[in-house]
Here is the input.
Amino acid sequence: MTATGSRTVEVTLSGMRIRPSVIEAPVGTVLTLRVTNADAQRHDLRLATGERTPMLAPGQSVTLKTAPLGEPVDGWCTVAGHRAAGMTMRLVPTGTVTASRPQPGTGHDGHGTTAGEPARLDLAAPMSPGWKPYDATLRPAPGGTEHHVEIRADDTLVQEVAPGVRQRVWTFNGTMPGPVLRGEVGDVFVVTFVNGATMGHGIDFHAGATAPDGPMRTIQPGERLTYRFRADFAGAWLYHCSTMPMTQHIANGMYGAVIIDPPDLPKVDREYLLVQGELYLGDPGGQPQVAKIRQGDPDGWMFNGTAAGYDHAPLRAEAGERVRIWAVAAGPNSGTALHVVGVPFDTVYQEGAYRLRAKDPGGAQVLGLAPAQGGFVELVFPEKGTYPVVDHTMRQAEAGAHGLFEVTGR
Here is the structure.
């Protein structure tokens, strides 16, 4: 603040957000807002006190001068639907009782929103320094017919689940989703399940056929069990925590994928795996979060544990390559309608069967999966460019089930 009680603030309009969303200044300060539309569509900014910018074209900037701050002042974009989508801000005189409004997912210890306050993820904001995406590259089956793995439960980790939003999560082997198991039909998996968490957990592999009484039982902290199953059927299978209430354990991150290759699966140039899950902000198991889980009202949706993560770390391919995208819908309550903008699928494999092959005359636009279902699609990117990969359930895409392929080459 200068000696004259004025201050200039850079304000950016983009990604259905106004940044900064809260501007604090001492009572009596006159703010000059330098408002820039950094988006690809038109926006404006209107304040509740009546000041407003004109409608701004992409790249356009104007200044907006406020009256001396006395009470909190709300601001928003007036384009139809934009305010409801999250294009809001607040000017707050310091020293008032509303001087700081909590931001979603950034409360104490990175936990979720204040009870009763709707979460608003800023998916276009940058990821935190040091963030690394879950590696979506699917590697070939390791060979051999028996696979020994250890899976360890943990319910104390903190992970960035959306840009700038850190949340305590429950995980297998420290990642959300957990480690990928891959093999061929007839392979045997011997899983040593270790509970390194603070509460009881279990594990359920959909890829196997076994009575759940023993291997899927809940074990207590410090205990372990051996889970052995034979993969008699090809497919993209879900595994998840088997402890009740399962909605909470799955919603907080305890899920992963088992990929069992169909016989004679052709080689492709690249393979990726997207496990879609719901995001519920808040203390895991806390009443506000549990209420949202019961209502099936997530704060967002994620590919591989981060909402819009692959917008910030795009997946790679080259023009002319054949790319296979495996997908599993972890839920717990919603599925997916997986779609790549700009490229039809020429191969669709869903729930253990081909729905479409490359030699067929038809094509497909969506891989539709209910909760706990899986499959894959194949496509060939025709030319270089940026191709979004989304859940075509638009509410879910716009709340984080969205990523990008960056395609290089001709």
